[in-house]
């Protein structure tokens, strides 16, 4: 039966029926999902409160100058005088404010520390001037803050006016933490990161071993520092560039302003910078000022256990600064631990694995030395190496390593790789322009570390290559090389770099780090030159097999001040490059756990699939209990009921039997429940109640006994792109039975498609498909043939032929069940009939009994009233009922029709038509009669 | 005699039968054919004289070098072909093979005749799934093999060049390429499972295929919204590009592993639901 388009649409869409079970299941799934997601993103409850206040401190060389510091205090809610907690002073980077390290502060406060963050004097809303962590100013400020903490009742104390306190900070804040620990013995632990040991050396380095007095001025970084502090309001540039290491800038404090030239810098600092930046050489005062701001000057006083965290991508405070701090502090017998990570002033915070590691180390350090809980931290040295670009994001990936003893930048072991090349002449450009580019201060991470964009100016550099490496070589520490140079002026500023050259000649300068050297007393000819050992910047890198090393000696670098006079130097390198290494054990990242999860998942899935297959197979093999009484009966339907989930009852109660050698017609109007009954019978739908026995076996979806049934239900179903013949072949293949059982020839005879059977099914008419479907149902001559509306789409001769076929089929013990809504078809085809209406059986029995001449006859006469009288007088009829204007339905009760017609004609009544009625039709009309609604519309 | 002697439930509807049935379909032939044609189209496109000046402007990012290096050798060409196919083409192909398989039978009406043979429902699904998986795998193998063959014939057999890991020797690179295909296959199980689930739920093949692709697109869009934070890890497409980790040295396995977990877990859930649904379903189409 053709379905209307809304019906088709409804079928095309997934059917969603709301039942209590589904609502419950859906709700459970929803709750679990929401719970999981919520758990994943739910913020941890805040366990501290935040207090902002301005604190006035007395500072200056005489301690008589008032400075107001902008502070923020994080107080754990659980802390009070009865339950005091240790405190942490959290210092920010240059150009930043107390808000920079808010996330670190919150993390520490959540761990139960009282955290005091403040804006250093000269920055943000704090008053005062920038003295570069001067012991007379910033360090005194911090001492006053320690006093202030000592007065807080909820801070635990080691003695009167001695709070239990640690100092944590990066860069400018890191320098302060070291200096404060040296000047104030009340400090119990410090965690300085990416900071300096000697500020003079940091800004005036000389990798040839010379002191800062003759160092090469690091003008780019110095200028960036001065710029970010000078105006008091432009700190954002530096803060953003250094990835938070120096701190993000905020606007200038209200009402705080400095001079146009020095901004908020103290005059002595300002003068020192101005003279250095002008000449490229430091004055004695400048050196003295920088020295006083350096932990190097007081390193022997530091007794607080120190965790030093230094960045590998840091052209401002390289790894060697932390190395100097570590050695100096360890010399006092103070516990020191060193960790290198892949970020820094150029590289930011580094990948997540690095941040996790440094955070863990910090927490462990503070827990033990400050809160006196947890295991004692080891003194092992940890470092990480960039191993590539994160494929999923745009960050870098680093691998961590653990070395039992800190080897320093000279490494635990050393490898020598020879580099060679003739002595070369290189030009020093006037005023340092054009200059080579190795790193850009603050943004070097993006340029230097990741993509390795470096620029050498032709004619201004000399290259010395090694042979391709025979095996991968790991470098952890500062390589060294001997350089010889000659200069007509007797002096030269050179930049020595170690490049990694891959097989394609692509050159990478690890982290964009260079070693500046100022050589003096040089001969004019290279022959008389004495080799100078140059310590290259400390790096952590693997030089892959097949790569070459290249030592480049250049005359200019845009990050440094170089002599303004144009000169031509002659340079050569002597001997091998010494490559330090520090083999360590890899640190497992927490993500290793996912490998075990994956393995577990695979095992679970394999077991589950295996179990499902075994259970499925066993179920197939399970013997079904046969009802012996019905073994010879093709079909028994008992108390069948089908109720859909939406409550619609398609079949309420159906019982019938199909015996061998019969053609049973299932008769009923559209929607009487015929097709639903057949669907259950084919194992397509699950019955709500009752059962179906085929040859005594209960029929469930997929029951093996279905192999004895052939079916055409709800129209043909073929693969449209294949020929009818191919469709039948494939269908039979799918049964898995031998081809000779199929009886293709007989089936094709019945289909009667001729050569059309080799055409594609999509070219078939409806009738052709119908015939092919009947042929498919008959393949293998099944003992029970079930046909749903088989004559649908067939023309009259074909219908007649089909009747003969079906009658012939129901021999040799076979049986046929035909459903139809056409009376005539059932009458003429079937031996037995079952009439359905509104999902119920209303009549059943042999056609001979039910169909056949009925005692009633319909008469169309010229005068209905008169005819009624005549027939009434005749006395032979049982009842007369009028039907329509000219019609009469007469129960003849055995009287021959001829007699009645004769009587009417004799009475002068014209008889137009005499139609004998049949019992089935009567029954059908009586039952279905005026009610033409289908069962589906009840 | 209670059943036909020659009938065995485990012999019905064999893999070979279903493979032949699907092979006869135009959509199968077209999809597989396209896998062979696509690398050739790309190859021809690379051969056409380029009109734009090959400056370095515009595209940035380290992995865009896959495009620049595509003509460096057969391996690079194959890698490029996989790179451009992975994000959408393979998803559509896998969704097609899995979404169409049961739904199309339902729409033709042939599903009920298969079930009336009777083919046990679990077996029907199992064979359907196995054949769909086989065709999906075949499509991926064809794509890779054609790209490798065409690329090698045109550009020669050279180590795999990449700017992030240096050169990878040919043998190692071939293994990595196979590893990439393997990872893609696992991560595509999400699409396969979803399409298969939709396929047994509806009898509109287009709905099943389109639905699976749409949800995958939705997942990719949500994945772009970084504000979602940790939720994004639960998105089925979150680890779709983790295979790029196989190109770095050393190989980055963290996201590969998590991507495999995601693919297998989602696949298992979707396939499980498909079975649960189909075994209990009233087939009314």
From TrEMBL, chain A:
Domain of life: Bacteria
Molecular function via GO: hydrolase activity
Pfam family, one: ABC_tran
Keyword check for rRNA-binding: no
Protein name in UniProt: Alpha/beta fold hydrolase
Record's keyword terms, sorted: ATP-binding, Hydrolase, Membrane, Nucleotide-binding, Transmembrane, Transmembrane helix, Transport
PANTHER family registered for this protein in UniProt: ABC TRANSPORTER, ATP-BINDING PROTEIN
Gene3D superfamilies: alpha/beta hydrolase (3.40.50.1820), Galactose-binding domain-like (2.60.120.260), P-loop containing nucleotide triphosphate hydrolases (3.40.50.300)
Lyase keyword on record: no
Transmembrane domains' residue ranges: 21-42, 593-615
PROSITE patterns according to UniProt: ABC_TRANSPORTER_1, ABC_TRANSPORTER_2
Domain ABC transporter positions: 635-863
SUPFAM superfamilies, A to Z: alpha/beta-Hydrolases, Galactose-binding domain-like, P-loop containing nucleoside triphosphate hydrolases
Automatic annotation (TrEMBL), chain B:
Residue spans crossing the bilayer: 30-49, 69-97, 129-153, 173-200, 212-235, 255-276
Pfam families named among the record's database cross-references: ABC2_membrane_4
Organism in which the protein naturally occurs: Planosporangium thailandense
Name used for this protein in its record: ABC transporter permease subunit
Superkingdom to which the source organism belongs: Bacteria
Record has Membrane as a keyword: yes
Sorted UniProt keywords: Membrane, Transmembrane, Transmembrane helix
């Amino acid at each position: 039966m053709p379905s209307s388009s809304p019906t088709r649409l409804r079928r095309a869409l997934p059917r969603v029926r709301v039942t209590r079970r589904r609502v419950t299941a859906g709700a459970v799934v929803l709750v679990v999902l929401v719970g999981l997601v919520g758990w994943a993103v739910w913020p941890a409850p805040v366990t501290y409160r935040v207090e902002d206040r301005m604190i006035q401190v007395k500072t200056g060389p005489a301690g008589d100058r008032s400075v107001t510091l902008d502070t923020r205090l994080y107080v754990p809610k659980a802390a009070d005088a009865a339950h005091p907690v240790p405190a942490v002073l959290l210092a920010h980077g240059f150009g930043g404010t107390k808000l920079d390290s808010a996330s670190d502060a919150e993390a520490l406060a959540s761990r139960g520390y009282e955290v005091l963050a403040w804006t250093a004097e000269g920055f943000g809303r704090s008053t005062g001037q920038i003295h570069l962590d001067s012991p007379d100013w910033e360090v005194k400020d911090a001492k006053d803050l320690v006093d202030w903490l000592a007065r807080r009742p909820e801070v635990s104390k080691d003695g009167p006016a001695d709070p239990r306190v640690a100092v944590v900070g990066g860069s400018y804040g890191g320098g302060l933490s070291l200096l404060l620990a040296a000047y104030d013995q009340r400090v119990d632990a410090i965690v300085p990161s990416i900071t300096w040991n000697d500020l003079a050396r940091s800004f005036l380095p000389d990798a040839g071993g010379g002191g800062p007095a003759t160092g090469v001025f690091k003008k780019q970084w110095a200028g960036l520092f001065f710029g970010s502090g000078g105006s008091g309001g432009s700190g954002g540039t530096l803060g953003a560039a250094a990835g938070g290491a120096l701190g993000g800038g905020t606007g200038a404090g209200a009402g705080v302003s400095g001079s146009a030239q020095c901004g908020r810098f103290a005059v002595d600092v300002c003068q020192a910078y101005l003279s250095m930046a002008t000449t490229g050489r430091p004055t004695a005062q400048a050196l003295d000022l920088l020295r006083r701001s350096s932990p190097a000057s007081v390193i022997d006083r530091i007794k607080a256990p120190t965790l030093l965290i230094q960045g590998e991508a840091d052209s401002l405070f390289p790894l060697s600064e932390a190395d100097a701090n570590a050695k100096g502090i360890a010399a006092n017998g103070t516990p020191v631990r060193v960790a290198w990570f892949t970020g820094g002033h150029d590289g930011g915070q580094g990948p997540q694995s690095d941040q996790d590691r440094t955070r863990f180390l910090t927490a462990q350090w503070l827990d033990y030395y400050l809160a006196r809980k947890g295991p004692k931290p080891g003194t092992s040295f940890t470092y990480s190496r960039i191993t590539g670009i994160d494929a999923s994001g745009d960050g870098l990936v680093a691998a961590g390593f653990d070395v039992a003893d800190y080897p320093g930048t000279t490494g635990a072991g050393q490898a020598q790789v020879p580099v060679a090349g003739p002595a070369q002449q290189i030009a020093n450009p006037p005023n340092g322009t054009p200059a080579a580019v190795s790193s850009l201060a603050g943004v070097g991470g993006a340029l230097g570390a990741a993509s390795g964009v470096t620029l050498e100016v032709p004619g201004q550099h000399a290259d010395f290559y090694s042979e391709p490496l025979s095996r991968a070589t790991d470098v952890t520490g500062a390589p060294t090389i001997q350089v010889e140079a000659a200069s007509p002026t007797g002096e030269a500023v050179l930049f020595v770099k170690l490049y990694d050259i891959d097989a394609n000649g692509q050159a990478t300068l690890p982290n964009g780090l260079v070693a500046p050297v100022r050589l003096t007393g040089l001969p004019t000819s290279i022959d008389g030159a004495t080799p100078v050992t140059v310590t290259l910047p400390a790096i952590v890198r693997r030089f892959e097999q097949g790569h070459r090393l290249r030592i480049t000696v250049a005359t200019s670098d845009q990050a440094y001040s170089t002599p303004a006079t144009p000169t031509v130097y002659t340079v050569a390198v002597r001997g091998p490059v010494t490559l330090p290494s520090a083999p360590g054990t890899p640190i497992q990242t927490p993500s290793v756990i996912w490998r075990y999860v994956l393995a577990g998942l695979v095992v679970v899935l394999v077991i589950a699939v295996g179990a499902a297959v075994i259970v499925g197979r066993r179920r197939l093999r399970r013997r079904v209990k046969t009802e012996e009484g019905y073994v010879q009966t093709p079909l028994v339907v008992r108390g069948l009921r089908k109720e859909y989930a939406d409550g619609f009852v398609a079949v309420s109660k159906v019982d019938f039997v199909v015996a061998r050698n019969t053609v049973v017609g299932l008769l009923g109007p559209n929607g009487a429940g015929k097709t639903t009954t057949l669907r259950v019978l084919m194992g397509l739908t699950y019955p709500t109640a009752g059962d179906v026995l085929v040859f005594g076996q209960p029929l469930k979806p997929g029951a093996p006994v279905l192999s004895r049934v052939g079916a055409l239900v709800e129209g043909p179903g073929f693969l449209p792109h294949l020929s009818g013949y191919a469709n039948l072949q494939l269908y039979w293949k799918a049964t898995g039975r031998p081809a000779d059982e199929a009886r293709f020839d007989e089936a094709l005879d019945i289909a009667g498609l001729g050569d059309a059977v080799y055409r594609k099914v999509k070219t078939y008419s409806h009738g052709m498909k119908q015939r092919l479907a009947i042929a498919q149902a008959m393949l293998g001559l099944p003992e029970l043939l079930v046909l749903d509306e088989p004559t649908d789409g067939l023309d009259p001769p074909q219908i007649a032929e089909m009747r003969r076929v079906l009658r012939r089929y129901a021999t040799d013990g076979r049986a046929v069940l035909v459903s139809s809504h056409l009376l005539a078809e059932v009458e003429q085809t079937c031996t037995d009939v079952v009439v359905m209406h509104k999902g119920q059986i209303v009549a059943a029995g042999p056609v001979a009994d039910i169909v056949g001449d009925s005692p009633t006859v319909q008469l169309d006469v010229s005068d209905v009233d008169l005819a009624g009288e005549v027939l009434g007088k005749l006395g032979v009829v049982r009842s007369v009922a009028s039907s329509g204007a000219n019609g009469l339905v007469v129960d003849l009760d055995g009287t021959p029709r001829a007699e009645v017609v004769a009587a009417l004609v004799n009475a002068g009544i014209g008889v137009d038509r005499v139609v004998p009625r049949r019992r089935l039709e009567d029954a059908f009309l009586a039952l279905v009669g005026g009610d033409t609604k289908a069962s589906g519309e009840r | 005699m209670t059943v036909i002697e020659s009938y065995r439930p485990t012999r019905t509807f064999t893999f070979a039968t279903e493979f032949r049935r699907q092979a006869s379909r135009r959509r199968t032939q077209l999809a597989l054919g396209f896998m062979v044609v696509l690398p050739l189209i790309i190859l021809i496109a690379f051969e056409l004289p380029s009109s734009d000046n090959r400056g370095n402007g515009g595209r940035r990012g380290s992995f865009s070098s896959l495009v620049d290096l595509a003509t460096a050798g057969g391996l690079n060409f194959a890698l490029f072909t996989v790179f451009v196919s992975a994000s959408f083409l393979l998803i559509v192909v896998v969704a097609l093979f899995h979404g169409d398989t049961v739904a199309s039978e339902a729409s033709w009406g042939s599903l009920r005749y298969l079930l009336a043979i009777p083919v046990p429902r679990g077996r029907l699904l199992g064979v359907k799934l196995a054949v769909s998986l086989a065709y999906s795998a075949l499509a991926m193998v064809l794509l890779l093999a054609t790209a490798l063959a065409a690329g090698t014939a045109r550009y020669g057999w050279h180590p795999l060049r990449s700017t992030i890991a240096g050169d990878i020797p040919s043998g190692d690179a071939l293994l990595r390429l196979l590893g990439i295909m393997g990872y893609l296959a696992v991560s595509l199980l999400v699409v396969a499972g979803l399409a298969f689930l939709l396929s047994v739920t509806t009898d509109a093949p287009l709905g099943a295929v389109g639905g699976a692709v749409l949800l995958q697109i939705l997942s990719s869009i949500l994945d772009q919204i970084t504000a979602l934070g940790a939720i994004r890890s639960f998105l089925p497409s979150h680890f779709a590009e983790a295979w790029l980790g196989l190109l770095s040295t050393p190989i980055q396995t963290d996201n590969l592993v998590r991507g495999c977990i995601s693919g297998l877990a989602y696949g298992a859930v979707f396939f499980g639901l498909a079975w649960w649904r189909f075994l209990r379903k009233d087939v009314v189409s």
